[in-house]
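Request: Mind sharing a record?
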Amino acid sequence: MLKLNIFSYVYWPEQFLINEMAEDIVQRGYEINVLTGLPNYPKGDFYDGFSLAGGPYLQEHKGVKIRRYPIFARKTGFPRLMMNYISHLLGALSIKNKIPQADWAFVFATSPITTAIPAIFWARRNKAKVCIWLQDLWPDSVAAVGATNRNSILYKILGKMVAWIYKNTDLILIQSPGFADNLKEFGYKGPSHVIPNWAPGLDFKDATVPSWLNDLPAKFTVTFAGNVGKAQAIDTVIEAAKILKDKEHIQFLVVGDGSELERVRGIARAEDLQNVQFYGRKPIEDMPGLFKRSDALLVSLKKDPIFARTIPSKVQAYMAAGKPLVGSLDGVGSQVIQEAQAGFTAPAENSTELAGVLLKMAELTDVERQKLGDNARHYFSQNYEKGRIISHIIEHLERYK
């Protein structure tokens, strides 16, 4: 029987794919332990029921055993984020030997990739192997959000750290084929396989529109849902809304939270953009109803080489909902939307072209938009179905253990 110890920066009740993967594998009869911190993403404060004093530090959820360690909550600002990252590293290192023997240290590698360091040390001590499921690219992602630049000493130090991590990893799974260049750049020579993300397990078929949308006017509705951070280049969306503000039949919804939310909300208020509504963070269970009420779903990313290599997870969620997509992004993410014939795309951070494709989408007939949505759903079922992807993960772990 396969045994996994999962090292992750995030875990339930934070909403990430690693939750579903762990729960699914447990249901198949395998043993899973998770090592993670106290939940505080994305808002930056500990979730209700969690605290430094009270933990809880030992839990079991849907058959998955969870061991947590104390951390500094993210709060806001770069210094606090760095304290959060460092506390995650030190916390995991301090209790790594309290998790049981397993075949693999499995790293769910969102930022920060330092999550892999305690996994490597644990694996060395316990004669196990290390698998990283790479969700973000370091050190490029640090540079992409403006924390450093590619010519800095910090970037070079982080690059050496990434090279050390890759050297001590036995198997790397990448969420996008565009990540392969990063593996080569930092010297990874082991096996690697593309394992794309899937959409959260939500009921899109029988969705009901949430009550907080009851007063929404009956207009063509473009929805941006998810994290509102620097990587999402939300300014481009707001600028496109400004360009289209005289098109009274088009409205924008921004549903989510993040480091940029209050700033862009202030911009929209200053510009008197009546066509943009901000709803803040809503329960994930409300997403199917939100998508059902929307006419098009919007995904955006910054213009940067790292993001051109990435397929944002919301692309899969939007496709699963069977709705047309509008992309403001470059590279692999744009290619997926076009290949699926699921909508229209504009170059990253080009608000003029984004406004143009949004207007084009609004001018389609309901039948034409439904065809795009059907294409999206079909592409999802063929490429991003959860059970099939998790089976591939297990096959790779069994093959290389």
